[in-house]
Amino acid sequence: MEAGHNSKPKLLIIDDEKQIRELLVDLLGGVYDCSDAGSAEEALTALSKQTFDLVISDIDMGGMSGLELVPRVHTLSPDTVVVMLSGNQDLEFAIRALRAGAFDYITKPIDLRHVEASVERALQHSQLLKEKRRYKEQIEELLQQRTAQVDRLAYYDTVTQLPNRALFEDRLTQAVAVAKASGQLLGVLFISLDQFKKVNDSLGHGPGDSLLREFAERLKSCISRTDTVARFGSDEFALLRMGIGGTTDVIETIGSLFQVLRFSFDLPGHELYATASVGVSLFPFDGEDSQTLLKNAGAALYRAKKSGGANYQFFTADMHELAAGRLALETNLRRAIQNEEFLIHYQPRVSVDSLAITGVEALVRWQHPQFGLVSPSEFIPLAEDTGLIVPIGEWVLRKACEQNRRWQEQGFAPIRIAVNISARQFHDQDLSQTVIRILHESGLAPHYLDLELTESSIMQNVEFAAEVLTRWKNMGINISIDDFGTGFSSLASLKRLPIDALKIDQSFVRDATTDQDDAAIVMAITTLAHNLRLKVVAEGVETEEQLRFLRLLRCDEIQGFLFSKPLPADMLVSLFDSVPKDTRVS
């Protein structure tokens, strides 16, 4: 393929081994205009003097490495594609090369067929980059011409400078009219950045806006000059694809989007990776007007997010029922907060050795007036998505502290009460003040409160977590890591955090007596925790065999149906009477 109208594509081959350079020049020189360099420094000199379509560089060289060279190449020539060479066949090296910005990775000893195929793909990508740059320049020129004719505040998003919903809907309406007259197909894509709310909550709106701007730029790189991309608000974007041939064209666009998301976002003071969910509707199959197409793309997006995010879904007829059900549940959930339809059940935490109660965990239940008890697995994820988990969590914390204080006033020996703090709650800026206020108003001493957090909520921002947890610890509050083993904590991270206990997730405890892998995980967590002077609590203990296994490991405490299922407060007190008072917290 050609780099220009009459010239061969220009290649720069970099390797500190002369034999490798000569081999590649002999292989490729008949088709391409090849130059070579023996070091990264020599290559930079050549790159400063002329533009190359493709750079093939060794990773390990004397002086600057190939990985260090990649961003320098892209700075000098954004359209130049880089392919890395390495004698290391470890997958981790390939991943590092791709994360640095390389397009492909070739291992030594060199397979000449692999080299030829990789070069062809890379040059095609280089041509695509140039075409997209030309299209972008054309789009920018058209936008500049129209700037004087429209009010940007009315039709453009102020953060990303993309068209807003009003302008997108206008263009979609026009596109539908054209498509009806010409018999063309249209694709409407609803795109949402996964976990964007957590970025805003933990890092603030400044880095959040930077993420939106960078995401918008990457999204624009995936479209043609006839397409429209817009920001609808918060983490939602929309893309209009004109004149598509079918679903394959849309899937290729989504593939391009997921490809550009493989690279990290460099925000002020932070580096993070992001994923996106996509919902798709097609004209005329999924609607013959703009509002129906948007509604159906939104329903498909909800299904994609419900499936765990980082995927795409095309609209299907049954999605209306799913979306309607979610809307009804959200409406009922908002009403439940106003009417206080929630109640709390309490599950004991007991000593492995004596089975004496050492504390209780407060677990929220929803008593729906028509449907009865609604499972937490149904409403907690929705509460997280909508932000309703914050008022629900505050209600649970208040009622649990008041109940614990009430038990003390009734003469029962003091115990700790554990309350779960969701990821959304934890990153709410007012949480610490809420905890202080509830402890003061309930009259409960801080050392009788145990706050439980998941690994993932803490590890989103370890510096922020350490600051908040230290503040709580200084107050006397106990801190436990819930569902341990399912997240991505590291030993170094745990050592930085002022925590008191690790709770082993029940998924490992359940099969620990029959599955060697789960048994090894439970043993490793117990050893790790004890080495860090932390208590270990095993969740989901249901059999005597599990209890014997945990006693052998010297696990400290257990929760589970073997001792008691979660109970209402009035039923739980009968268990208080059955254990010695001197086993409680003092």
> What structural class do helix, strand and pairing data support?
alpha/beta
The fraction of residues assigned to DSSP E strands is: 15-25%
Total DSSP E strands: 21
Q: Major sheet: order of its strands?
A: 13-14-16-17-18-19-20-21
The quaternary organization reads as single chain
Mean pLDDT equals: 85
Q: What would CATH call the homologous superfamily of the largest domain?
A: EAL domain
Name of the level-1 CATH class of the largest domain:
Alpha Beta
**Largest β sheet strand count, sense and barrel closure:** 8 strands, mixed, barrel
CATH architecture of the largest domain, by name, is Alpha-Beta Barrel
Quick summary:
By secondary structure, this protein is an alpha/beta fold. It is 49% helix and 20% strand.
Describe it:
This protein is α/β, with parallel strands linked by helices and 586 residues long. Helix 14 runs parallel beside helix 16. 37% of the residues are buried. The chain folds into three domains: 122 residues, Response regulator (Rossmann fold, 3-Layer(aba) Sandwich); 167 residues, 2-Layer Sandwich (Alpha-Beta Plaits), CATH 3.30.70.270; 235 residues, TIM Barrel (Alpha-Beta Barrel), CATH 3.20.20.450.
Which features does this protein show?
586 residues; 20% strand; 8-stranded mixed beta barrel; 23 helices; alpha/beta; 21 strands
Write the layout of secondary structure elements.
Blueprint (H helix, E strand, L loop, with lengths): L9 E5 L3 H11 L4 E5 L2 H10 L4 E5 L7 H11 L4 E6 L4 H10 L3 E4 L4 H36 L4 H4 L9 H18 L2 E9 L2 H8 L1 H16 L7 E6 L2 E9 L2 H14 L4 E3 L2 E3 L3 E8 L6 H17 L5 E3 L4 H21 L2 E10 L5 E12 L3 E3 L1 H11 L2 H21 L6 E5 L2 H4 L4 H12 L6 E6 H5 L2 H14 L2 E7 L6 H6 L4 E4 L1 H5 L5 H16 L3 E4 L5 H9 L4 E2 L10 H8 L10
Parallel strand pairs: 1-2, 1-3, 3-4, 4-5, 11-12, 14-16, 16-17, 17-18, 18-19, 19-20, 20-21
Antiparallel strand pairs: 6-8, 6-11, 7-8, 9-10, 13-14, 13-21, 14-15
Helix pairs in contact: 2-3, 8-9, 11-12, 12-13, 14-16
